[in-house]
Write a structure and sequence with these properties.
Mean pLDDT: 86
Distance between the termini: 27 Å
Radius of gyration: 14 Å
Helix content: 25-40%
Order of helices and strands: EHEEEEEH
Length: 108
């Protein structure tokens, strides 16, 4: 499993973090889903490209962020996870990385 993982410092409350990230990710086309027992944001179905995922967990004075893309071997058939770096899956990774940066900036 390979995910982008970062903890950023913030002075925003849990409610503010959830509102900011929820508003932004909803505008970007993400939906809250249950993924292997975790509540995460997901965009895409995986028919053409692997779906994008983000997990945002506010804590005291920090926010834990994870982001990844599922690796599609066939439409709707996934093998594993990829973080936001590297050439494989380049276009979706770049889009997801821009979204992660936007969220981190809005929470700083």
């Amino acid at each position: 499993m390979s995910r982008y993982v970062n903890d950023i410092k913030t002075r925003k409350s849990k409610e503010e973090v959830n509102r900011i990230t929820g508003d932004y990710l909803t505008r970007e086309g993400f939906k809250m889903v249950d993924y292997d027992g975790e509540k995460v944001w997901k965009k895409g179905t995986g028919l053409a490209l692997g779906p994008q995922f983000m997990k945002v967990m506010p804590g005291p004075d920090k926010v834990h962020i994870e982001a990844w893309i599922k690796f599609a071997i066939l439409p709707g058939v996934f093998l594993g996870e990829m973080d936001t770096e590297g050439l494989v899956g380049g276009a979706p990774k770049r889009k997801l990385k821009k979204r992660v940066i936007a969220i981190e900036r809005s929470l700083n």
